[in-house]
């Protein structure tokens, strides 16, 4: 009987420790999902700012200039908001752009005049579509932290407006 009691205690103890480890693993996965969103969102934002700065240095088109200035204002604020959120959640923002964004900037850098303006407008449409998808997923289910979900949901109206403006810019340029 004593052996049975010890065996039962051992089994219960193991089950408890496995459940506890599972909870720790789940918390770690949640943190990784939250961290992955913050990195992806801050990388995308970094690209928007860099592309806008490049546009301001390369274009003579007033529509492109106005759009780029608007992107700098809004995405500059988003960068600040993201840094504050990341600090509160003990997460890291991206320190550099992933290769896909670097390649887009290299493509833009090589272009001039109308070719630059057209490619910039096209990239802004694509980039905002990608970012809207990222923020929509985060606001619905891909992140676990409620504060990060709320941040993503709160930025969606502005991102959707940016997409509309990018589509309009593309039309104005003649694509």
TrEMBL record:
The keyword Signal applies. This is DUF4142 domain-containing protein. Pfam families: DUF4142. InterPro entries: DUF4142, Ferritin-like. Residues 1-22 form the signal peptide. It comes from Mucilaginibacter antarcticus. Gene3D superfamilies: 1.20.1260.10. PANTHER family: BLR2558 PROTEIN. Residues 33-169 form the DUF4142 domain. Keywords: Signal.
